[in-house]
Structure formats: C-alpha cells, structure tokens
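Working notes for the structural subgroup meeting. M.R. asked for a predicted model of this chain before we commit to crystallization trials. I am recording the input and output together here so anyone reviewing the notebook later can reproduce the run.

Input as submitted:
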Amino acid sequence: QVQLVESGGGLVQAGGSLRLSCAASGSILRINVMSWYRQAPGKQRELVATITSGGSTNYADSVKGRFTISRDNAKNTGNLQMNSLKPEDTAVYYCNAHILGWGRPEYDYWGRGTQVTVSS
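Returned structure, recorded in token form:
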C-alpha cells in the first residue's frame, strides 16, 4: 500500500508564510510527478503547482512568484513553500503523486488534505 500524508497547514495572517509537506510511504519504486492541488469551499479543486522527478516545475498563475514547490527524491517527500499569502489562498491543500510501485503499474495517489486559512 502507498500513502501520502500532508502536514503544515494552519491559520496565518495575510502576508504570512506556511510550508506544507507531503510524505509518501509504502512500496514505492519511483515517484514521477508530484503536485499540489487546492479546493476552496464551493469551488472545484484546482492545480496549484507541479514538479517532475527531474525538478521541472509549473505553477498556477495565481501563485507564481509566491509559492515554491520542491521535492526530495531520496526521502519520497515534497514541499510547498507559500509566501505572501492572501485570503483567497484559503483552501484545503492536497498532495498528489504519480507513483510506480514494486510489481504495480503507475497509479495516481492523493493525500487527505490539510487546511490552510489566511485571515485578512
């Protein structure tokens, strides 16, 4: 079994920073793409940032210049550094990873999410 567990969410004032972490565990051969998504109340889940196994990154326009995605391939972990937070960043943030397991095909895994609340 493979699990993704997020941590690091919380309440912060506008302009502040938070660092989210995602830890993958289980029978993992390789993690390919890792991503962070978010879902605000009443809205659809949206892609925030993506990083490939080679380190190439992509960001939603709304977070460019403020958020930084990173990963540690040796530790099977990923991070999302969020700076200059705005109230509109308030959402549940989810870690997503395309993982190739031992004896298993690549599969799309999700964490349970971590709440980020930005007060004005």
